[in-house]
Write a structure and sequence with these properties.
The chain is mainly alpha-helical. The chain has two domains: about 110 residues, no CATH class; about 110 residues, no CATH class. The chain has twelve helices and no strands. It is elongated. The chain starts with 10 loop residues before the first helix and ends in a 21-residue tail after the last helix.
């Protein structure tokens, strides 16, 4: 008898988000338990133990670990790339303050007009696209012009270097998060239980922190999953816990 998964993500993603939510709940346990006694020990430790056992039994211990590692690798590039792109944009404006039209033309050629908003929102694909256009359209003549105006050559070199590094790390992350073993009915039933439990934890904790947006977001399943996937989830205060469809889910 087949069982339909309730979770619209890979088992590795479900496990990873569950572990992150449990960690956040444990970090804020005192306030949470005050409002929701059900979450008092040993509930969270027992849930984590069961999830780890499920990981070992059904998807392999290394699967979720590999996803976290791949995501960490992407973020280690995303953060400095975002900072350097911001510095480049600011310095270019200063260097071309007497020729705003040329400043705007260069930003457009290098991808800033189309993708920079995505970069500021920590959108992984938008950052990859901007870096790719930057590298492709920064000709030797244009680079010389920008440097002659005062831009740091080292800054330009770093930005060009991010393009290949982030693209490679993104492929590694994609492979890790799309690890989808064939789930048996038994495994699907168990992961459906995990999903129900962690959604229950999320809903309870969101109510506890309803007046603290930053902490509330630690317990929104869809936001955590979107961050794990390197995207930018745009939901506001009314965002739900439902997971968005995963590619090829």
């Amino acid at each position: 008898m087949s069982i339909t998964p309730k979770f619209h993500c890979s088992p590795s993603e479900l496990v990873t988000v569950t572990e992150l939510v449990i960690g956040s709940a444990q970090d804020n346990k005192t306030k949470i338990v005050e409002k929701r006694p059900k979450i008092a020990d040993p509930y969270l430790p027992n849930l984590l133990t069961r999830v780890i056992a499920d990981k070992q039994k059904y998807i392999g211990m290394d699967s979720a670990k590999n996803l976290r590692s791949a995501t960490a690798g992407v973020m280690s590039i995303m953060i400095p790339a975002k900072n350097d792109l911001s510095e480049f944009k600011t310095d270019l404006k200063v260097d071309f303050k007497e020729n705003k039209a040329r400043n705007d033309e260069i930003l457009n050629m290098l991808g800033f007009k189309k993708y920079y908003t995505s970069v500021t929102r920590n959108n992984q694909q938008g950052t990859i696209d901007l870096l790719a256009q930057f590298k492709l359209n920064l000709t030797a003549d244009l680079e010389a012009e920008i440097i002659d105006k005062g831009m740091s050559p080292g800054l330009i070199t770093r930005i060009k270097g991010y393009a290949d590094s982030l693209d490679s790390s993104n492929l590694t992350q994609e492979a890790a998060k799309n690890h989808r073993p064939e789930l048996t009915a038994e495994a699907t039933k168990e992961f459906n239980w995990v999903y129900d439990e962690i959604i229950g934890v999320c809903e309870s904790c969101q109510k506890v922190f309803k007046d603290n947006e930053a902490k509330k977001n630690l317990f929104v399943f869809s936001k955590i999953l979107s961050t794990l996937r390197g995207g930018n989830h745009g939901g506001g205060n009314n965002d739900t816990n439902q997971t968005p469809p995963a590619p090829n889910a």
